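Postdoc handover notes: sequence design on the structure in folder B. Input C-alpha cells:
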C-alpha cells in the first residue's frame, strides 16, 4: 500500500495525464474517481481500475478515505469543488486556469489558507526537468535579466457551443502556462517566481472567432524584464521561451518533448543538461506534490502564486498599461 490515497474528480481528456502520473508515482495509489458523465465514468473505471467510482464527487468525499484529490474539470466547474475539498482538509491539486477569473482564484486562496491540506496549481511547465535545469543555470549566474515566451495555436475551440460558459479568455484559460513560465524563469531562488510590477499589454481579436492576439512587455520586482506573444489562429501549436543572463542564453522549444539550445560564455554548449541535479528526468508536478505532502514542505505553485499569475493574465487580456 502506498503512502497517499488519491481520488480524481473529472475524467475527461486532460485527466488521462494525471492518471498516468499518479500510476507512475510509487508513493500514490489511485483509490477512487468521480465523473458526472456516465460514459466517461464507465470508461475510466475500465481503463484505470479504481477501487470505487462515483457520479457525485461529494459522495466520494463522504464515503472514501482519501489524502489527495486531483480536480480536473473545466475552469468554470472548479471553484465549489476546490472549496469543498480544501474545506475537508484534503491535499488538493487544482487544474489551470484556477477558476474563471481572479475573484474565483482569490476564493480558492482563502479556502487554502483555512485548510490543513496543501493546495497546488497544476502549472506543469514549472516542473519540467529541462525548465528546472535551465533555471538553475540562470540562478547560478545571478538570475535572468530577460525572459520571453511564445504560445501560439490554431483557433482555440472556445468559440464552440458551451465552451465560453466554462472557460475564460484564451490567455487566462490556456496561454496562462507561458505567462506563468515567464514569472517562474524570472525568479531568483529555487522555490520562488518573480512578481510582475509593470505591464504593457496589447490585446485584440483576429477576424475569426477563437483567434485572440496578445502581446505584452513586463517588468518584474527583481529587475528582470519579460516579453510575451500569444496568437490563436496562426499556423501551428508553438510553445517556446528564451531566457538570458550574463554570458548565458537558452532557447527552449516546449512544443513537444523539450529541446534546449544553450549558449554559455559565447559558445554553443554541447553538454547535456544536468537533469539529475533537479530531480531526474522523470520529475513532474505529481512527484513534487508527493514530496511536499510527505515532507511537509510548500508546493512551488501554491494558490498565492495562482493569484499572481491570474493577475498578470488578466492585465494582459485587458491591455493594461502601467504599474500593477
Ligand atoms: N496542463 C495542461 O497542459 C492542460 C491541457 C489540457 C487541459 N487542461 C485543463 O484541464 C481541465 C480539463 O480539461 P479537459 O480537456 O480534460 O476537459 P474535459 O471537458 O474533457 O473534462 C472535464 C471533465 O470534468 C467533468 N466534470 C465537470 N464537473 C464535474 C463534477 N462536478 N464532478 C465530476 N466531474 C465533473 C466533465 O464531465 C468532464 O468529463 C481544464 O481546466 C483545462 O484547462 C490542462
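Designed sequence:
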Amino acid at each position: 500500500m502506498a503512502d497517499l490515497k488519491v481520488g480524481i474528480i473529472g475524467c475527461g481528456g486532460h485527466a488521462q495525464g494525471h492518471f498516468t502520473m499518479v500510476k507512475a508515482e510509487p508513493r500514490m495509489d489511485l483509490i477512487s474517481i468521480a465523473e458526472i458523465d456516465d460514459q466517461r465514468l464507465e470508461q475510466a473505471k475500465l481503463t484505470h481500475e479504481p477501487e470505487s467510482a462515483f457520479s457525485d464527487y461529494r459522495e466520494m468525499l463522504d464515503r472514501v478515505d482519501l489524502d489527495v484529490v486531483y480536480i480536473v474539470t473545466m475552469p468554470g466547474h472548479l471553484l465549489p469543488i476546490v472549496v469543498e475539498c480544501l474545506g475537508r482538509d484534503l491535499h488538493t491539486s487544482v487544474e489551470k486556469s484556477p477558476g474563471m477569473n481572479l475573484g474565483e482564484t482569490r476564493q480558492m486562496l482563502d479556502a487554502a489558507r483555512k485548510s490543513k491540506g496543501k493546495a497546488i496549481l497544476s502549472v506543469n511547465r514549472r516542473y519540467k526537468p529541462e525548465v528546472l535545469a535551465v533555471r538553475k543555470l540562470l540562478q547560478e549566474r545571478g538570475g535572468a535579466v530577460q525572459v520571453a515566451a511564445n504560445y501560439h495555436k490554431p483557433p482555440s475551440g472556445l468559440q464552440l457551443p458551451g465552451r465560453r460558459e466554462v472557460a475564460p479568455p484564451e490567455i487566462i484559460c490556456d496561454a496562462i502556462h507561458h505567462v506563468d513560465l515567464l514569472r517562474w524563469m524570472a525568479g531568483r531562488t529555487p522555490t520562488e517566481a518573480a512578481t510582475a510590477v509593470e505591464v504593457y499589454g496589447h490585446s485584440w481579436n483576429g477576424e475569426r472567432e477563437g483567434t485572440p492576439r496578445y502581446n505584452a512587455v513586463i517588468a518584474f520586482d527583481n529587475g528582470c524584464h519579460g516579453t510575451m506573444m500569444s496568437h490563436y489562429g496562426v499556423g501551428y501549436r508553438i510553445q517556446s521561451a528564451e531566457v538570458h543572463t550574463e554570458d548565458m542564453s537558452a532557447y527552449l522549444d516546449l512544443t513537444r518533448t523539450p529541446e534546449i539550445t544553450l549558449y554559455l560564455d559565447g559558445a554553443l554548449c554541447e553538454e547535456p543538461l544536468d537533469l539529475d541535479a533537479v530531480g531526474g528526468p522523470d520529475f513532474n508536478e505529481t512527484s513534487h506534490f508527493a514530496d511536499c505532502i510527505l515532507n511537509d514542505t510548500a508546493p512551488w505553485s501554491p494558490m498565492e502564486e495562482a493569484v499572481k499569475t491570474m493577475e498578470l493574465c488578466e492585465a494582459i487580456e485587458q491591455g493594461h498599461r502601467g504599474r500593477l
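Context for whoever picks this up: Residues 125-281+302-323 form a domain with the Dihydrodipicolinate Reductase; domain 2 fold (CATH 3.30.360.10). Don't rerun without checking with the PI first.
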